[in-house]
Design a protein that fits this description.
It comes from Brevibacillus fortis. InterPro entries: Beta-grasp_dom_sf, Mopterin_synth/thiamin_S_b, Thi_S, ThiS/MoaD-like. This is Thiamine biosynthesis protein ThiS. The chain has about 70 residues and is mainly beta. It has a single domain (about 1-60), classed as Beta-grasp domain (Ubiquitin-like (UB roll)), CATH 3.10.20. Helix content is about 10%, strand content about 35%. It has one helix and five strands; from the N terminus they run ββαβββ. It has one helix at about 20-25, and strands spanning about 1-5, 10, 35, 40, 55-60. It has a five-stranded mixed sheet with strand order 2-1-5-3-4, with no helix packed on it. A hairpin with a 2-residue loop joins strand 1 (about 1-5) and strand 2 (about 10). The chain is globular and about 40 Å long. It starts with a strand and ends in a 5-residue tail after the last strand.
Length: about 70
């Protein structure tokens, strides 16, 4: 399936069907991130149940600490 991820068209492996699987594929599952799907922010508790479909627009923002 092809999605728009952070402004770029990306082809996802067929096993990536949820937001949780997408984050895991980018090694982001343990980081503090905000995920938006088609203009809606997804609650972290719903990542496992939130499906990703062909043509979705996904934005992932992760926070980096520093000082």
């Amino acid at each position: 399936m092809i999605v728009q991820l952070n402004g770029k068209k990306v082809e996802l492996a067929e096993e990536i069907t949820t937001v949780r699987a997408l984050l895991a594929s980018y090694s982001l599952q343990e980081k503090i991130v905000v995920v938006e799907r088609n203009g809606e922010i997804i609650d972290r508790s719903a990542y496992e149940q939130t499906p990703i479909a062909d043509g979705d627009r996904i934005e992932i923002v992760h926070f980096v600490g520093g000082g």
